[in-house]
Every structure is written in C-alpha cells, then in structure tokens.
C-alpha cells in the first residue's frame, strides 16, 4: 500500500518511519524546506522525499495521505485529494492503529501543555511505562515505533483532532474552549468546539471524558450534542454532580468507585487556571491506579514547561516571570489572576484581533505599570492607558526589562505575559521567552 505524507516536520517524519516499519511504500512531500535533522532521518531510512514542491502525481498515486496538522483542508493539495476520494488523516490517527498501550489525551484552548506534562510526570514518577507525545514534543508515531509503553499521554491541538476518525482516547481531558484559530473554522465557535469534542469520539462507557464543568462553551456544546464516554466533570464552582473539586489546598475526587483526597500544598503551580489543570491531571492519575500518596509526591517534584509562568530570576526582591506562551487574552487573564503580588506587566507583540476588555478589572486591581513591547503598541495603549497611566513603550527586550525593574519595588512581580503572537520582534514565543530571561540575567549581572 502506498502512503503519501505531507509535511516533513516532527509528525510527518515520525509517521514516515512508522509507515515504513509497517510495510508501506512511503513518499514524503514538503512544499517548504526540510530541516537538516529530518532530511538526515529520511535519507538514513531510505524513504523517498521531496522539498520545495508537491508533485501531485506522486501524492495522488497513494491510497492514503497523512498530513501535517499545519496544512488546512482548504489547501489545494488537500482539496485535490478529497476530490479524488483519497482518505486524508492525521499522524495521530495513523499511529493509533499500531499502539498497544492506552491513550490519555488532553486538549483545550489553554493549559494543554501544563496538564499534559503534569499528567506524564505523575505517571512516570510513579514508575509506569509512559510516553509523552503529540503537540508537546515528539510524534506519537515515533513513540509507537519505539514500543514498550503502557500509556501514551498526548497533547492534541484542534488541528490534530480535525483529521482523526477511528482513533479513540481511553481517558480524554477537555480543559476549556475560548476563541482561537477561528480562521480555520470559518470564524464559527460551533465548528471550533466540534473539533475539540472529537476528543471523545468513539468512546464507550469503559472510557472516561474529563471536562471543565465551569467552562461556558463546553457546557453550551454538551447541551446540544450527545458526548460518549463516562462523564467526569471537574470544577471550582459549586455544582451538583462534580466528580473532582477543590477544597482548600486539597483535590477531592469521587467517581467510578474512586474516593480520594490529594493534598496540593507542595505543588509549584500557581493560579486558578492551574487548579483546573491539576484537577484534570490528578483525575487521570487516579483512573490509572495511582494512590494519593504517589500523586502528592509527583506534584511536589513537578517542573512546568519553559515559557509558562516560569520564574527566571530575582533582582532586589523583584521576581521576574516568563509567561511568553500566553499568546491570547484568556491565558493572560489566568496569569494576572493567579499572581497575588503587585505586577509590572510586559505585554505586546503581533495582535491577533484581541479584545482586552476582560482584562481591565484585573489590570485596575493588580497592575501598577505596563511596559508595551512590540512594533505597534497602539491597541494596547488605547486599551489600558486610562486604567494604568504608568505605561511606556519599547521595541527592545533589554530596555523592557530595565523599564519594568524601574517601576517595580521589593516584593513585586515583573510578568511577561504578552497576549499576542511574537512574530513582530521574535521568531516564536520560545525565542521571546529566552530573550526575556537573558535580559533579566544581563540586568542582574550588571548590578543596575
């Protein structure tokens, strides 16, 4: 059987190597340039590939196409495949056919990476054979090819969920649904929500669907659609039927024969959003058989992903936090809400059509100064200058850190939480976060 793989990044090359191992005739096509790392892997495996173009005869000669999640269904090469009734699937869908272990899958607009990493850490620290894959790092196909795992903890974006059909999560976690990537969904929240809810497709009563009971869009979609799987609602608001909830610094879980209390005092995660993330991860850990003691130990040793509420230094009693991954308003809301100290907020970048109005009460309550870091800060200035008159602009990250430090006093927090994409001044949000952390260290070394 011939399979064509579109995109030669992490997911595409992982799918190519797995497909070859399973006896497929594989052809990889990338319209852009293939990185040296992935070109070397394909060459070493003897897999046919091309870059800089799509040779349609070779692609449409395949019985199935595996596409990168970054390629929309509206792309001409995909439209042509669908017109020819060639099945187009995701790397996750393909890898799922060959995995022996169980899938714990996490999606949501915000919090996916933290929840995925925490779930993986809890299981791994308890000694389980567990792989980490999907949107957070290595391809699921690559991990399936390695083999030897009882569980796969997989972060899934809506783009990955779009082309999944037979795949089934044994434990699915839906954290929240807020506007994002709507250009891929005809600017309709219903279509975006439907993509997120594909997480629960094909579930049976033996599978578990953990969802945020407090999220309005989740509740709206659930009210109009039948969602398979055993429902496990979690939340912070008092409601009937909550399976997982917070009480003080404890997570209480009562569902499916489980009755457990997990203390969270030693967790490094701060903020309301991380309470949701922690409830979800703890619920998954309990479902696979971990004890509260094992979970508490894992919570105490967890280190979150870089660029997500990551402390990167302290100068004269002022703490600097890198939250560069917060590229939308909702993520910034959670960051501001979670910090109890006075905040000097570093914000800005390439605007994504943001509506900043939801942040105004938090800015009024908590933010003493704003440093706008971006090429065009006009929208930020218009949104916040009346609420926070101490607002300055810059296009230099080192100057931004220096200005923020000047505004701050001992006990304050300087928070980089941009609410915007990074592409005006940086290559990506990681580049922005690293540059911020380096600027903090430079300022500390200078002793200014």
TrEMBL record:
It comes from the Bacteria. GO terms for cellular component: cytoplasm. It is an enzyme of class 6 (ligase). It catalyses: UDP-N-acetyl-alpha-D-muramoyl-L-alanine + D-glutamate + ATP = UDP-N-acetyl-alpha-D-muramoyl-L-alanyl-D-glutamate + ADP + phosphate + H(+). The keyword Ligase applies. GO terms for biological process: cell division; cell wall organization; peptidoglycan biosynthetic process; regulation of cell shape. It is found in: Cytoplasm. Keywords: ATP-binding, Cell cycle, Cell division, Cell shape, Cell wall biogenesis/degradation, Cytoplasm, Ligase, Nucleotide-binding, Peptidoglycan synthesis. Its EC number is 6.3.2.9. ATP binds at residues 108-114. Pathway: Cell wall biogenesis; peptidoglycan biosynthesis. InterPro entries: Folylpolyglutamate_synth_CS, Mur-like_cat_sf, Mur_ligase_C, Mur_ligase_C_dom_sf, Mur_ligase_cen, MurD. Gene3D superfamilies: Mur ligase, C-terminal domain (3.90.190.20), Mur-like, catalytic domain (3.40.1190.10), NAD(P)-binding Rossmann-like Domain (3.40.50.720). Residues 307-420 form the Mur ligase C-terminal domain. Residues 106-285 form the Mur ligase central domain. GO terms for molecular function: ATP binding; tetrahydrofolylpolyglutamate synthase activity; UDP-N-acetylmuramoylalanine-D-glutamate ligase activity. Its main location: cytoplasm. Cell wall formation. Catalyzes the addition of glutamate to the nucleotide precursor UDP-N-acetylmuramoyl-L-alanine (UMA). Belongs to the MurCDEF family. This is UDP-N-acetylmuramoylalanine--D-glutamate ligase. It comes from Nibribacter ruber. The gene is murD.
């Amino acid at each position: 059987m011939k399979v064509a793989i579109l995109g030669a990044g992490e997911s595409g090359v992982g799918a190519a190597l797995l497909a070859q191992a399973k006896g497929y005739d594989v052809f990889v096509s990338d319209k852009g340039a293939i990185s040296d790392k992935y070109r070397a892997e394909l060459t070493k495996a003897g897999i046919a590939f091309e870059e800089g173009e799509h040779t349609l005869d070779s692609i449409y000669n395949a019985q199935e196409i595996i596409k990168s999640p970054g390629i929309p269904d509206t792309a001409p090469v995909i439209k042509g495949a669908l017109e020819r009734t060639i099945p187009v699937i995701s790397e996750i869908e393909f890898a799922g056919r060959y995995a022996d272990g169980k899938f714990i899958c996490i999606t949501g607009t915000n919090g996916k990476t933290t929840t995925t990493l925490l779930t993986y850490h809890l299981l791994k620290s308890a000694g389980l054979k567990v792989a980490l894959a999907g949107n957070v790092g290595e391809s699921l196909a690559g991990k399936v090819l390695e083999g030897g795992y009882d569980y796969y903890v997989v972060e899934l974006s809506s783009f990955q969920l779009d082309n999944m059909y037979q795949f089934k999560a044994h434990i699915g976690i839906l954290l929240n649904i807020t506007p994002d990537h709507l250009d891929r969904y005809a600017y309709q929240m219903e279509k975006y929500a439907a993509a997120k809810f594909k997480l629960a497709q094909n579930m049976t009563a033996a599978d578990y669907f953990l969802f945020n009971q407090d999220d309005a869009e989740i509740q709206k979609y659930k009210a109009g659609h039948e969602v398979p799987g055993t429902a496990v609602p979690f939340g912070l608001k008092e409601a009937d039927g909550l399976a997982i909830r917070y009480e003080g610094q404890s997570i209480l879980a009562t569902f499916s024969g489980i009755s457990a209390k997990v203390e969270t005092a030693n967790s490094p995660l701060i903020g309301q959003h991380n309470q949701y993330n922690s409830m979800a991860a703890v619920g998954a850990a309990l479902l696979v058989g971990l004890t509260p003691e094992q979970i508490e130990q894992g919570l105490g040793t967890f280190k979150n992903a870089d660029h997500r509420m990551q402390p990167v230094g302290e100068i004269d009693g002022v703490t600097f936090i890198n939250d560069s991954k917060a590229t939308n308003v909702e993520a910034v809301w959670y960051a501001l809400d979670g910090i109890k100290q006075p905040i000097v907020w570093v914000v800005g970048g390439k605007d994504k059509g943001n509506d900043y109005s939801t942040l105004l009460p938090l800015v009024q309550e908590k933010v003493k100064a704003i440093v706008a870091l971006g090429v065009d800060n006009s929208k930020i200035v218009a949104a916040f200058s009346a609420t926070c008159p101490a607002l300055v602009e810059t296009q230099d990250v080192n100057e931004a850190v220096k200005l923020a430090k000047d505004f701050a006093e001992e006990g304050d927090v300087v928070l980089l939480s941009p609410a915007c994409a990074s592409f005006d001044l940086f290559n990506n949000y990681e580049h922005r976060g690293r540059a911020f952390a380096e600027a903090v260290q430079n300022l500390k070394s200078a002793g200014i």
